[in-house]
Design a protein that fits this description.
The chain is an alpha/beta fold. The protein contains 17 helices and 21 strands.
Length: 470
């Protein structure tokens, strides 16, 4: 099932897209990867969704990526005694550990880790920044604040602290239970929410080991301060613009998005842009022109994937949203300057034989007008290097491991295919020719550029480049 584009689409599943028929239609219209949001739903509902995804994978004969998005340490207010309250700018307002329901003067905040880092001048953002408080005095069990921006508060509204690093693990007890359940289902990629520092990823890697790859969601200002170390430790990075846009000025987010994408491309790590990409399609069958431009801008930056959240999970038009995303991507990639713009941020190859071979493969493919680059990979590293080069031709990734094929479904320009294991290099080449013909990437007389690591199935040993004619 060939996609005529290189940028991938991630679709979040939810109430609007939890049936077999809708999932099949999402795949047909362009979804390459599915996100299971563990902030919502039950273990049983997520297991049912995964079963439907795997059935669609078999039906459409295409590897489909799936990742479990863990909720992370959500910070929320407690409850209010008499329903929502309005707080006015300039008023005093107390947050404390007392579980007694709140009123117009105070509210319970059951998070001692917040009070541990609060000091005079600390900013607290409530309900996605709609209400803004500043600490004037604090102790281990409370914080007295001044209301900078007034508004209405109600039960369990979220709390953000853009000025401080909280001394909390990115994996709560709920996350650990969800993680073990997801891994038990066979999900091999997890997204880590609210990453603040490199140590958060170290903790996750120690817990997960080699059972899954990790997507680091960048949504905290402290993560920007440690961006390059986080990118180095992550397998994939997500620009999570929702909370990032709450905790940082909106005018900073576009520049930060470009900075994160550039850092990932230089490191050869896949990167996803997420949140509010086609937000109006929650209720309308078509996006705004500004939203279409937003998606196109990410595509021009060479991002690996763009993600639909509420649009496909809870909106009225989940299938249409995926279809529209596909149309915007394909139109953008057909634009004459697209390849030149993407090439402008192409990373210089590292001084390794594997990177030299991969860079040469791109150059050779351009020189001889090859129809595709074929990579044989056991770990995915050969294919990730090829994608890092952003070649102007498709990348066929042949792997004997279904898990690797599914993980590569997220990667720019890659068409992953699970194949039988090989005993010799000439068998691999013969299989590459057969796949290229069957999948419509090439015809008789066309040429392919083939890269692999010898001996076979030795991770990280890309050392062979071969030109073949069909």
């Amino acid at each position: 099932m060939r996609r005529n584009r290189r940028t991938k689409i991630v679709a979040t599943l939810g109430p609007s897209s939890c049936t077999e028929g809708v999932i099949h239609r999402l795949v047909e219209r362009g979804a390459d990867v599915f996100r299971l949001n563990f902030s919502h739903g039950t273990h049983e509902s997520h297991a049912d969704l995964l079963r439907l995804i795997r059935a669609a994978e078999v039906h459409h004969r295409v590897p489909l990526g799936v990742f479990a998005d863990l909720q992370g340490p959500k910070l929320r207010l407690g409850t209010f005694a008499d329903g929502p309250v309005r707080v006015e700018a300039g008023a005093k307002f107390r947050l404390d550990l007392d579980e007694t329901p709140g009123d117009g003067r105070r509210a319970p905040l059951p998070h001692p880790e917040i009070f541990a880092v609060c000091k005079q001048g600390t900013t607290l953002l409530l309900d996605d920044g709609k209400v803004r408080l500043q600490v004037v005095d604090s102790a281990a069990d409370h914080a007295d604040t001044k209301v900078l921006t007034g508004g209405v508060l109600s039960d369990h509204k979220g709390v953000n602290l853009p000025d401080v690093v909280l001394q909390v693990s990115p994996l709560t007890a709920k996350d650990r239970a969800d993680l073990e359940f997801a891994l038990g289902l066979g999900i091999t990629t997890v997204a880590l929410s609210f990453v603040q520092r490199p140590a958060d990823l170290d903790e996750a890697h120690e817990l997960i080991g080699d059972r899954a790859t990790i997507i680091a969601k960048i949504e905290k200002p402290s993560a920007i301060e440690h961006l390059y170390s986080i990118v180095e430790r992550a397998d994939t990075v997500m620009v999570a613009r929702g909370d990032l846009g709450v905790e940082m000025p909106p005018e900073d987010v576009p520049a930060l998005q470009k900075r994160i994408i550039r850092a990932c491309r230089y490191a050869g790590k896949p990167v996803i842009v997420a949140t509010q990409m086609l937000e109006s399609m929650m209720v309308a069958p078509a996006p705004t022109r500004a939203e279409a431009s937003d998606v196109a801008s990410a595509v021009y930056e060479g991002v690996d994937a763009v993600m639909l959240s509420g649009e496909s999970a809870a909106g009225r038009y989940p299938v249409e949203a995926v279809s529209m995303m596909d149309r915007i991507i394909r139109r953008t990639e057909r634009d004459y300057p697209y390849q030149r713009i993407v090439d402008a941020d192409r990373a210089v190859p590292e001084t390794t034989s594997a990177d030299a071979i991969t860079a040469a493969a791109r150059q050779v493919a351009e020189t001889i007008s090859a129809q595709a680059i074929v990579t044989f990979t056991a770990s995915g590293s050969t294919t990730l290097r090829a994608s890092r080069e952003r070649p102007p031709v498709p990348i066929l990734a042949l792997t004997p491991y279904e898990r690797i094929a599914r993980n590569l479904a997220l990667t720019w320009g890659v068409y992953p295919i699970a194949v039988d294991r090989f005993e010799a290099f000439d068998q691999m080449v013969a299989r590459a020719l057969k796949v290229a013909l069957e999948e419509g990437f090439a015809r008789e007389g066309d040429r392919l550029v083939v890269t692999a690591g010898l001996p076979l199935e030795s991770p990280g040993t890309t050392n062979a480049l071969h030109i073949v004619t069909i």
